[in-house]
Amino acid sequence: MGRWWPSRLLLGLLCAVVSAELAGRTDGGVTSSFVRKAEKGVDMPIDSDVFRLPPGYNAPQQVHITQGNHDGSAMIISWVTEDEPGSSKVLYGTDKDQLDFHAEGKHTRYKFYNYTSGYIHHCTLRHLKHDTKYHYAVGIGHRIRMFWFTTPPEVGPDVPYTFGLIGDLGQSHDSNVTLTHYESNPKARTVLFVGDLSYADTYPNHDNVRWDTWGRFVERSTAYQPWIWTAGNHEIDFAPEIGETEPFKPFSHRYHVPYKSSGSTAPFWYSIKWASAYIIVLASYSAYGTYTPQYQWLKAELPKVNRSETPWLIVLMHSPWYNSYNYHYMEGESMRVMFEPWFVKNKVDVVFAGHVHAYERSHRVSNIAYNIVNGKCKPVPDESAPVYITIGDGGNLEGLANNMTEPQPDYSAFREASFGHAIFEIKNRTHAYYAWHRNQDGNAVTADSMWFYNRHEATHPASHLDSLLAALSILSCSMEPENQAMLLPYLPWFLQKMRESEAESNHYACAHRAVLCCEALQVQSYIKPHRMGCLTF
C-alpha cells in the first residue's frame, strides 16, 4: 500500500497527459452508459424558499455582478427594488466595517405585455485593485444589504485562474441541484454562462415574473461571483402576437455587460480579459453575415488578441457548431461557416456552447475545406482547431436531450445525457485542466476531463512528452512489478511520438529517460530502434 499509493497518483497524471495528447485524434469517442436518476422536469413552485423575497421595505433583490470593463478593474453591480426607485448608490471598500468609497448608478424599468418590472439598478465600480476582496452595500436609504466579491488578478500570461461553466439553467428542481452542486465546488471563482437564463418565455405571455424568481434564485451565487453573460434563444422574448416586437427586451434591461469597452456596438457580442484568458462572447441570434456589425467586430477583434499577454483564447456562444444529438442538429452550421476559418487561424483554445440540454466534448477538428466542387464535408483532425464543448445541461424544465445520432461521429470525444456543470482551471500559459461534473456525483468526482495544452505555445513540442516521460520514469521505479504491466499499453503510442518529434536538444534527456523506462519494464522490442547517437549511454 505504501509504495502503490503514490504510484496511483502518478498513473493518474500519466493518463491525463496521454488524454491531452490524444484529444485531437478522431479515432472514435465515448457515449457514456451512465443512466441519470430522474428528477421532476418542472419548475420549482413560485412560493419555494429559493424564490423568497428579502425582508424589509424596498429591499434590494436579484443582486448580480459582472465584469465592468475590458481588463477587470471595474465591476457592474445590478439589483432590483420593487416598491420605489430608491437609491442607485453603492457603498464599497476592503473593510466590511468601513466602506470608504461610493459610486452612483442609474435605474431603468420596462413593460412587457401586462407586466411592469421593478426598478432595475446598474452601478459600475471603477479603478478597483486587482485580486482584492471588496465588500459592498446596496439599498441605501431603505433596507441595506451587504455582499462581497473578489476582483480578478492582474492580466498576465502565467496567472492561474479557475472558471465555472453553466448553461441553460432555468429554475427547475434540477436547476437547483446544478447550482447547489456548483456552489459545493471550491475551485471556481467566476461563471462563464453560455445562455438561456430564466426560461420565462416558456410561460403564457412570457410571464416576466419568472425573470424575477430566477434572479432571486441565483442571487446566492451571482451577488458574490461575477457571471459572464451570453444571450441564448430563451432571451429573445420576441412575441408579436402579444405586441412585443423588441428582441431581448427583458435581458437587455436586467443584465448589463461591458460591451462598449471592447468596441462592440451591442451587448450581445463583446470581449474581456481575465487573468491569462481572453474571452470572446458571440451572439448566435444576432446577424453575423458579411458586413454585419457582429462580423465586422469579430474580424477586427481577433487580431487584437495578444497571446503573449493572454495566451488562453476562449469563446462563448449559445448554439453549438459540433453537436451529435438529434436536438438542434446542425443549427449552428451557418455561423460555423462564417467564423470557423478565423477560429482555426487564430488557434482558439476552446469554444463553450449550450442550447442542447446534454453534455458533449469534441476532439480538435475543423471543417473548413468544403466547397461545392470537392465535396469534402467531413470534419477532419486539426490541431489548430478548438475543442468544442456543449454544456447546455443546467437542468431547465424542458428536460434532457437524450436522443443521439448513431453511430457516434468521429469528431465526438465524449457525450452523456445528464445535467451538471464544468470547471476550466488555467494553470499557467501552457496548461489548463478541464473537468465536467454530473449532478449525481460529489464535487470531487469528474465524469469527463481533459488536459489542455495551449497550441499558441507549441514551439516546444516536448512539453507533454516531458510530463509523460517523467511520470513513466518515476512509475517504473516505484511500482510493484505486478503493477508495471499497467503502463505497457501506453508505450507504443509514446515511442511513436518520439519518432515524430524533432531532434532538439530538449528531447534528449526525455528520450534517455524513455529508454531507461522501457528497460525497467523489460520492453526490449521498443529499445533498440531508439538507441540513436546521443541517446546511447
From TrEMBL:
Residues 60-151 form the Purple acid phosphatase N-terminal domain. Keywords: Glycoprotein, Hydrolase, Iron, Metal-binding, Signal, Zinc. SUPFAM superfamilies: Metallo-dependent phosphatases, Purple acid phosphatase, N-terminal domain. It comes from the Eukaryota. It catalyses: a phosphate monoester + H2O = an alcohol + phosphate. InterPro entries: Calcineurin-like_PHP (IPR004843), Metallo-depent_PP-like (IPR029052), MPP_PAP (IPR041792), PAPs-like (IPR039331), PAPs_C (IPR025733), PAPs_N (IPR015914), Purple_acid_Pase-like_N (IPR008963). Residues 385-443 form the Purple acid phosphatase C-terminal domain. GO terms for molecular function: acid phosphatase activity; metal ion binding. Residues 1-20 form the signal peptide. Pfam families: Metallophos, Metallophos_C, Pur_ac_phosph_N. Its EC number is 3.1.3.2. Residues 162-359 form the Calcineurin-like phosphoesterase domain. Belongs to the metallophosphoesterase superfamily. Purple acid phosphatase family. This is Purple acid phosphatase. It comes from Musa troglodytarum (fe'i banana).
